[in-house]
C-alpha cells in the first residue's frame, strides 16, 4: 500500500516541479520541520529555505526532474523511499543523476517529506545550477 501512495506522491511532485509550481510543491510536500540534505553535507531547513533553494534549481536553472521509487520501507507514520532521480536541462540533456532517500512522515496535515536526501552520482555540469 505504501508503495502506491509514495509512487502517486512522487508523480504529483514531479508534475509540480516540471511546471515550476515551487510554492505549491513545497506547501504540499514539506513542513517547517523538513530538511533537505545535500551531497556537499549542507542542510536546508524549513519551508522558506526549501522554497529559496528550489526557486534557484527549478526556475533560475530550468532543470526538470524525473523520480523513480525503487524500494519502500516502514509502516505506520514513518515510511522511507529509496529511489533514483535525473535532472535534465531545457534541451533534455541529463545534467545530474543519482540516488535519493526520502523519509515520509504522517501528521495532522497528512503525509509529507520529513527528510529529503540525495547523492550526485553523476554531475555533468559545474556552477550555480548545482
Automatic annotation (TrEMBL):
Gene3D superfamilies: 3.10.450.50
InterPro entries: DUF4440, NTF2-like_dom_sf
Residue ranges constituting the DUF4440 domain according to the UniProt record: 6-113
Coiled-coil segments: none
UniProt name for this protein: DUF4440 domain-containing protein
Organism: Romanomermis culicivorax (Nematode worm)
Lineage of producing organism: Eukaryota, Metazoa, Ecdysozoa, Nematoda, Enoplea
